[in-house]
């Protein structure tokens, strides 16, 4: 069924009269009446009740009207989007980064988007992964770049790189800390970690359960900058990805990779609340290219 015939049907219903609809559409009334009969014949059900007072929809007609309006609206949006794309990608992209990833990506991402897509407006939200997940769910973000545990990933996520967790210690321990640390050796070590509702904490606790050890957690700290400041005092240690250390380059911290490796995936996560727009596709393209240079990848 051609879209213009759906337009004819919707116009007839909106006008409530074949004669009024024919005038609005600029077609002869007999031709419009024949087209309505042809649609009914194609679908095999009556769609309109005709009377001297005008036309009314049958039950089947209401179903067709609802779907026809939706289809016509989508076609109009498609034409507008294609037109905008042909003239250059425009629009707004709301994107979230966890603080460590923001420190690495925010500036190069902004500069590259300005260079390639100057008509795209960026809204950048740095926050913890749990809050970014909420913003994705309610549609306030188009995209987020997040570390993902295997259990938290979904089919829409676009994996970029693997990152391994490290033991981070203060300057007092820097001289004696090796390049790797066995996870079992952390059992009696004082730790400060992100709170229990954070994906990183769940990953660490799962590893502790697997290794059958109990961690000595002094405090839950969701501010990464604050967490690193505490570690710098030497009172406690923490477990983070090496990327997180870029937040406080002023601190003389030392990291060692935990073995067996505890890994998670850095991914671009689109919102499920709305379709990915051309502007969001452009942002994904830029982030994917930047990630190949800015993120380490482990096999």
From TrEMBL:
What are the record keywords, sorted?
Activator, DNA-binding, Transcription, Transcription regulation
| Gene3D superfamilies linked to this entry | 3.40.190.290, Winged helix-like DNA-binding domain superfamily/Winged helix DNA-binding domain
Could you tell me one molecular function GO term of this UniProt entry? DNA binding
The record's section on InterPro entries has: LysR_HTH_N, LysR_subst-bd, WH-like_DNA-bd_sf, WH_DNA-bd_sf
Q: Which domain of life is it from?
A: Bacteria
GO biological process entries: regulation of DNA-templated transcription initiation
Q: Which family does it belong to?
A: Belongs to the LysR transcriptional regulatory family.
What's the protein name?
Answer: Transcriptional regulator, LysR family protein
């Amino acid at each position: 069924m051609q879209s213009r015939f759906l337009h004819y049907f919707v116009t007839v219903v909106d006008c409530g009269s074949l004669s009024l609809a024919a005038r609005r559409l600029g077609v002869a009334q007999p031709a419009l009446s024949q087209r309505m009969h042809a649609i009914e014949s194609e679908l095999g059900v009556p769609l309109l009740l005709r009377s001297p007072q005008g036309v009314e929809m049958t039950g089947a007609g209401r179903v067709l009207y609802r779907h026809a309006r939706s289809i016509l609206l989508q076609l109009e949006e498609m034409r507008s989007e294609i037109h905008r794309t042909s003239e250059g990608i425009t629009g707004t992209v709301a994107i979230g980064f966890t603080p460590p990833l923001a420190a690495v990506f925010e500036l190069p991402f902004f500069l590259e988007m300005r260079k390639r897509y100057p008509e795209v407006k960026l809204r950048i939200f740095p926050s913890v992964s749990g809050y970014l997940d909420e913003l994705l769910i309610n549609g306030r973000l188009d995209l987020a770049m997040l570390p993902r545990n295997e259990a938290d990933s979904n089919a829409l996520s676009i994996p970029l790189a693997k990152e391994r967790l490290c033991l981070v210690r203060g300057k007092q321990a820097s001289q004696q800390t090796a390049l790797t640390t066995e996870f079992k050796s952390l059992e009696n070590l004082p730790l400060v970690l992100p709170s229990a509702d954070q994906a990183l904490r769940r990953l660490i606790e799962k590893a502790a359960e697997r290794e059958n050890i109990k961690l000595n957690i002094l405090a839950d700290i969701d501010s990464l900058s604050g967490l690193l400041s505490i570690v710098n005092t030497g009172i406690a240690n923490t477990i983070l990805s090496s990327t997180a250390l870029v937040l406080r380059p002023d601190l003389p911290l030392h990291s060692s990779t935990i073995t067996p490796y505890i890994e998670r995936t850095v991914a671009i996560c689109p919102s499920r609340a709305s379709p990915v727009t051309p502007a969001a596709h452009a942002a994904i393209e830029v982030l994917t290219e930047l990630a190949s240079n800015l993120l380490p990848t482990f096999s």
